[in-house]
């Protein structure tokens, strides 16, 4: 199978976000300070490792489909959906908010392209399912660092 331009562009968008997620995770990892530093420091390494592996899986899938992945820093900077991460030291609380937002943005891109990917190549959509599940789990776990035990949990819509 040879990827169409649509499939190639969709996977490139996922790839750019995963590369940027990896870079932002390391930036946070190196510069966080504050309460629960060590726990978040270690958790960020888990996120970085997953993002790197998912980026590699995406790029290799693209090559298997005769598409050309572009992981150059200039391409990633121009095309990622993740907000820019600040320079310098960052509190654990602020880092948590930013990392959760980055995880949710990466998942948002995957969900946005999912149906078109699935229509052309269900095998590649299966990869997206795996990535989404793990990144959403990370977002929940990181976000739990700042949640209060009185926080309400929204029940799924009953229709």
TrEMBL record:
InterPro entries given in the database record: DPS_DNA-bd, DPS_DNA-bd_CS, Ferritin-like, Ferritin-like_SF, Ferritin_DPS_dom
Molecular-function annotations in GO? DNA binding; ferric iron binding; oxidoreductase activity, acting on metal ions
Q: Which domain of life is it from?
A: Bacteria
Pfam families listed in its UniProt record:
Ferritin
> Which key words are in the record?
DNA-binding
Q: Does the keyword DNA-binding apply?
A: yes
Q: Which residues form the Ferritin/DPS domain?
A: 9-144
Task: State the similarity comment.
Answer: Belongs to the Dps family.
What is the designated name of this protein?
DNA-binding ferritin-like protein (Oxidative damage protectant)
- Native organism: Pseudarthrobacter phenanthrenivorans (strain DSM 18606 / JCM 16027 / LMG 23796 / Sphe3) (Arthrobacter phenanthrenivorans)
């Amino acid at each position: 199978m040879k990827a169409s331009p649509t499939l190639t562009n969709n996977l490139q968008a996922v790839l750019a976000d995963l590369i940027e997620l990896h870079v932002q995770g390391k930036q946070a990892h190196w510069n966080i300070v504050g309460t629960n530093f060590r726990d978040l420091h270690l958790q960020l390494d888990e996120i970085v490792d997953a993002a790197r592996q998912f980026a590699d899986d995406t790029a290799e899938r693209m090559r298997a489909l005769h598409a050309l992945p572009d992981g150059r820093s200039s391409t990633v900077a121009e095309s990622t959906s993740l907000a820019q991460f600040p320079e310098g030291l960052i509190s654990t609380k602020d880092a948590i908010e930013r990392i959760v937002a980055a995880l949710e943005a990466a998942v948002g891109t995957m969900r946005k392209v999912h149906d078109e990917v699935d229509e052309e190549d269900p095998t590649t959509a299966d990869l997206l399912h795996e990535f989404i599940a793990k990144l959403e789990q990370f977002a929940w776990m990181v976000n739990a660092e700042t949640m209060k035990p009185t926080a309400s949990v929204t029940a799924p819509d009953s229709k």
